Amino acid sequence: MGKPLIATPQTQHFPDRLPLQGGGAIRAYDLAFETYGTLNADKSNAVLVCHALNASHHVAGVYADQPKSAGWWDNMVGPGKPLDTNRFFVIGVNNLGSCFGSTGPMHVHPDTGQVYGADFPVVTVEDWVNAQARLLDSLGIQQLAAVMGGSLGGMQALGWTLQYPDRVRHAVVIASAPNLTAENIAFNEVARRSIVTDPDFHGGHFYQHGVVPQRGLRIARMIGHITYLSDDVMNTKFGRQLIGDSYRYTTQDAEFQIESYLRYQGDKFSDYFDANTYLLITRALDYFDPARHFDGKLTAAFAKVQAQFLLVSFTTDWRFSPQRSREIVKALLDNRRTVSYAEIDAPHGHDAFLLDDARYMATVRAYFDRIAQEVAA
Known about the structure:
Blueprint: E1 6-7, E2 10-14, E3 18-19, E4 25-26, E5 29-36, E6 46-50, E7 62-63, E8 77-78, E9 83-84, E10 89-93, H1 125-138, E11 146-150, H2 152-163, E12 170-174, H3 182-196, H4 214-228, H5 231-237, H6 257-272, H7 275-287, H8 298-301, E13 308-314, H9 322-334, E14 339-344, H10 358-376
Parallel strand pairs: 1-7, 6-10, 6-11, 8-9, 11-12, 12-13, 13-14
Antiparallel strand pairs: 2-5, 3-4, 5-10
């Protein structure tokens, strides 16, 4: 093994107003980001990686003083990996409204001097893309070799091809969808209600009360985590295994190992994630729907897209099913765009996009090999 990739967090301040889809604006905000690799002379090898719900700008590598702090997609991005930082300049950006460095509900409103809390404006995928575009402007990058993301990150990659069609040559969209189904919106709503009905939520201004709505966050995470896994994975990993040797006949304590696992995930999540951020990001998921402005016709929505695409889905992903990726593929083919599509037979559910399936990794590697050849030509 070679030396680990060392990541260095950076922050860019933007004093000017960023108009938002909801009609408001935000100003004097910061974006946290990291870069990996070297930008070439003509700045043609830049790849933007967009993150999903509870991830951040820390995509790859480790921090020099934290050897176990591997980025959330470290198996995908780095020297010699499918997205090879020996060949590409990779940028990870933390979305506005997040709780990992970019300006969000935990930060101070520049006009009031008070923590935003529930007063942080609603942000959308389109707003995140516009903010990312401003960051790329500050880095002097006019066109991306590729934009890449999984799940909500894949929606952002789609957003880039729609909002800035001439600034993206390739889009890699993994385990994503052109919008959420009613079932997905329902899951998000149940998770949000678990947070807002927590007595410690205080209408989103819990910071002023010195508390955190951890009970609501725990339940929200448990709900979400169930949807990220497949039934096969849960049965293989946990089945009906008990915590003890036999039933204890209790209605409140955990009896099964799957219950204990979900409680552990909920406890861990509630210690580091911001409740208002959870509300904002799940609502951004709900709002994303490019076809909404085209009478529900996805083909019409993609008419101005110029990028070439790689789409990947996973057979057991029931939250962002292969059918949803095929909808995107059809809309792109209807517009005579160049599309590669891989449907991976993997047992891991939605979380498969973060894991090391050999066929998946080989597909992404081959696609970026092709992009690298274009950059070098």
